[in-house]
Write a structure and sequence with these properties.
mainly beta; 50% strand; 18-stranded antiparallel β-sheet
Length: 331
């Protein structure tokens, strides 16, 4: 009797590629998320004049690609793999190597050539592999009222192939997500209690290069323009924040979130936490709309990050660090 393929038995494995497009033989970690891995082909329908009214006389498969969309809570140990895929560079240090050697701080920065990933998607009855995975969109969002930090990612990769290696048995860490009320928000250099939900969205253009050479798969990825958007909801008890957009002279802000989870260790006066910190040095407001759907008046703010990285004393659009018990994200 055949077995039963069950949705709840699905899983997603992730690893960083040493050479773009060279698939890993097994996942480095298993990431808790909901995701669907898709394979798509561009197909050419043959519709020439052939002496009758029939519409299609044949179909020719041309190029192909894959895509996947992991969605779910942000986990401080496994979600950073997608941060590396989005931004491209990471530097890992030990804040207290002598007394707490298991605590590591990973600082993420923008790079022209982001890291590529190999993704393993299990559907219970079969496992599929998507190599040369690149992040097109990375989104972090949270709401204070009854939610957790969430991380949605959109990736492109090579057309999925069926996994042919040894049987994989997923194992997951005990790390839990951050509660949505936990982030500490700093706006314009000042801590604020006026904001209750936030979405940070990183987008980059990825052009897949299909050469004439006998293969339907892309051979390289070219990374283009990248942008960062910051949207949030704030209470309108005063019009101080609203005036940053409303006044004729533009007033930009900096935007930082810092969220701490459980303690990873204590050394004297220093406590090291599981932590996520994201900094957007300059946001310029695109719009601020009043919202009367709640008992209190709110404003919905939409902003774009501005880069001054090529100026003296300037800064990139976005940077971040994660503190956890993971030694490295590049091995």
């Amino acid at each position: 009797m055949a077995g039963y393929s069950l949705s709840k038995r699905s899983w997603l494995g992730v690893g960083v590629e040493s050479t773009p497009g060279t698939a890993l033989v097994a996942p480095t970690v298993y990431h808790p998320a909901k995701s669907i891995m898709k394979g798509t082909k561009k197909r050419e329908q043959l519709k020439e004049e052939r002496g009758n009214r029939d519409g299609v006389y044949g179909i020719v498969d041309t190029i192909r690609e894959g895509a996947i969309d992991p969605k779910g809570p942000f986990y401080a140990d496994t979600s950073p793999y997608f941060m590396l895929g989005a931004w491209g560079a990471v530097t890992s240090t030990q804040p207290d190597a002598t007394n707490l050697p298991n605590v590591h701080k990973h600082t993420f920065a923008l790079a022209d050539q982001p890291k590529t990933l190999t993704l393993f998607k299990n559907y219970d009855a079969a496992v599929y592999v998507g190599a040369y995975a690149v992040v097109e969109k990375w989104t972090l969002k949270f709401a204070a009222d009854g939610k957790v930090l969430e991380n949605d990612v959109a990736l492109k990769h090579l057309y999925p192939v069926k996994y042919a290696g040894a049987q994989l048995t997923p194992t997951f860490s005990p790390v839990q997500p951050f509660a949505g009320y936990a982030p500490q928000i700093t706006l314009g250099g000042v801590s604020t209690l006026d904001i209750d939900d936030v979405m940070i969205e990183f987008d980059q253009k990825c052009t897949l290069w299909y050469p004439a050479g006998g293969s339907a798969d892309f051979a390289a990825v070219y990374f283009g323009e990248r942008t960062v958007k910051v949207d949030f909801t704030a209470r309108f008890d005063t019009d101080a924040l609203y005036n940053h957009f409303f006044n004729g002279s533009r007033t930009d802000d900096s935007f930082t979130i810092d969220v701490k989870g459980p303690s990873l260790g204590v050394d004297g006066a220093n406590t090291y936490y599981q932590e996520l910190n994201i900094s957007v040095p300059i946001i310029s407001y695109d719009s601020m709309d009043h919202d009367l759907s709640k008992d209190n008046v709110l404003i919905k703010a939409k902003a774009t990050a501005i880069s001054t990285a090529n100026q003296t004393g300037g800064s990139p659009m976005i940077s971040a660090f994660v503190q956890n018990l993971v030694a490295s994200y590049t091995v």
